[in-house]
Task: inverse folding
DNA sequence: CAGGCAAACGCCACAGTGTGGCATTTTCGA
DNA sequence: TCGAAAATGCCACACTGTGGCGTTTGCCTG
């Protein structure tokens, strides 16, 4: 896994264990019963945790379903911090994301794709996902140092949009090894898309 | 205003009047006291409407603050329906949006900019805004007939992102006459943004 | 114009999420 | 071994959104 193994204190390990139990239980549970149809109490009963402790670990019901997504992005931001920044910003972002994907383990891919399928089904989760993307745009802009120009802000919006498109293309299959290819394909399509022409519909 | 004047029946006029009263009261009220800090009951007391009727008119508390935004997009979709679709999809979208803006009245601009300022302050409203944009992407994709290719989906994402950037540039001033200029500027910047280079930060 | 009909309304009660207070248990460090 | 800090569980509360149901209001026909 990507999480840095910090045995740390017994207390922190225990807290992290309940966090993990909540996240790993939540995704299958929500998938089976539906996100909006599943009361939070169902998860709490399953993991045997009180509401109070849950909300100390996660900000919201949506949050607990997003562990895999947040793991990805926190890793990606670390990669960006360590990367040497030079060249086209779009390439830098794409390569950072590819590096990030390379660091993820097999189990993460399973958890991640399950999360994406879940997000597609629930409007509230979809909204949460979009908000998360917006937050990531801010962080990425800062790290790429392109936040102060129109072109820069447009580019970051564009890159995150491309990332989402790559996920859309990947999801039906969902094979871990295929995601990097989807990312490359979509990023290659970016320059072409501006010349896309409308197709007079004929339904 | 953009709303088609349909006197219709007395009943419908009455219903529409309460809808309008709610929307026009909501934005200043939320602006003054903060969106999350203002209970819905405060608005209901101000307009003297029961909760039941409120939720028959609006789907959520966020929804009532979005009237101006929805007016814009419903008009824009109508413009797209009537427009002859040919040429580059990005240009078609930009021109449709410019036409739409031209149809809006002075009072709408005031309501709209107030709404945008409100959205910037509240996380939940911001999330609602992003979800609304996603819904509009679907509608625009359908109308432009570009939903079936990677380039097409990328383009629509890109266009809506450009629209949001234009709003960001316009908002500080907020003069009605300046928004079309912002839109043109940002759309002109789209091809350039792909070549944007990272700037080695030096904090 | 009278009276039935349907739509809109208001009131009530409920489920669900998220927050704060407070006592209790568990863990860390001295 | 003991005190401090942190995590937990329990309780109560505010707020949003929904459904039931009786009542009012406007519409439309005889």
Result:
């Amino acid at each position: 896994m990507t999480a840095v193994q910090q045995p740390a204190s017994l207390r922190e390990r225990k807290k992290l264990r309940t966090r993990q139990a909540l996240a790993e239980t939540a995704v299958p549970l929500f998938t089976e019963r539906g996100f909006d149809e599943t009361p939070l109490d169902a998860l709490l009963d399953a993991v045997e945790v009180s509401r109070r402790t849950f909300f100390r670990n996660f900000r919201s019901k949506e949050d607990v379903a997003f562990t895999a997504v947040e793991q990805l992005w926190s890793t990606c931001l670390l990669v960006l911090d360590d990367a040497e920044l030079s060249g086209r910003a779009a390439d830098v972002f794409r390569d950072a994301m590819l590096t990030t994907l390379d660091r993820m383990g097999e189990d993460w891919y399973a958890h991640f794709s399950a999360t994406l399928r879940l997000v597609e089904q629930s409007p509230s989760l979809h909204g949460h996902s979009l908000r998360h993307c917006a937050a990531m745009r801010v962080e990425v802009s800062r790290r790429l140092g392109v936040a102060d120009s129109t072109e820069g802000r447009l580019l970051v919006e564009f890159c995150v949009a491309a990332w989402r498109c790559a996920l859309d293309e990947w999801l039906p299959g969902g094979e871990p090894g295929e995601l990097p290819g989807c990312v490359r394909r979509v990023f290659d399509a970016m320059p072409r898309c501006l010349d896309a022409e409308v197709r007079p519909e004929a339904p």
Notes: Chain B touches chain A through 49 residues (CB under 8 Å). The mean pLDDT of chain B is 93. Residues 9-11, 14, 39-41, 51-52, 55, 59-61 of chain B lie near DNA strand D (CB under 10 Å from a C1').
